[in-house]
Structures are given as structure tokens and as C-alpha cells.
Write a structure and sequence with these properties.
Strand order of the largest sheet: 1-2
Order of helices and strands: HEHHEHH
CATH class: Mainly Alpha
Strand content: 5-15%
Number of domains: 1
Number of strands: 2
Shape: elongated
Helix content: 55-70%
């Protein structure tokens, strides 16, 4: 590979990386691979697999690589959020 070709490839990769990491991007425009997802959610690969198998976590798989849309991941978190009642509610419910 010639030096000019290599430099062109590097510039294109840098442009892609810049677009992928812009803070002003909408969540629906951001895609994470398996490693990024498991790091973000602090879960194992097997747990992510389990969420996919249960249909809880949307994904796409062009070829052999799995991709997750950030907007879908955020929706998954909203759908599976656990609401904790105030401590006074918990103590009152135990007395009932």
C-alpha cells in the first residue's frame, strides 16, 4: 500500500470516528458494538445475549457483527427501570 493511500484511509477513519463520537449526535444516530454495549450497561456478554434472546434488547446483525442502536438501548433501560418507593412507603407496607 502506498503512503498516499494509507493517509487517505486514515483521514477517512478519523472522519468516521469524529462523527461517531460527536456529543451533539442524536441517540438514534449512534450505534454500539457488543463491547461498547456491555461496557455501557456494565453487563457480561452472556447477559446481553440473554436480553437479545428474550426480545428485550433490539439489535441488528449485518453479516456476523452485532450492533445496538443507542436510542433502543435507552428505551430498554426505561422499559426495565425499577421504581423504588420512598423509605417511609416501604416501612408502612411491611406493617400491613
Amino acid at each position: 500500500m502506498k503512503s498516499e493511500e494509507f493517509q487517505l484511509i486514515m483521514k477517512r477513519l478519523e472522519a468516521i470516528e469524529e462523527k461517531a463520537t460527536r456529543p451533539d449526535q442524536k441517540p438514534e444516530d449512534i450505534w454500539w458494538d457488543h463491547q461498547q454495549l456491555t461496557k455501557f450497561l456494565n453487563i457480561s456478554k452472556r447477559t446481553a445475549q440473554n436480553y437479545r434472546d428474550r426480545g428485550w434488547l433490539k439489535f441488528t446483525m449485518p453479516g456476523s457483527k452485532i450492533w445496538y442502536n443507542k436510542a433502543d438501548v435507552l428505551q430498554f433501560l426505561r422499559d426495565h427501570a425499577v421504581i423504588i418507593k420512598g423509605s417511609s412507603d416501604v416501612s408502612n407496607s411491611k406493617r400491613s
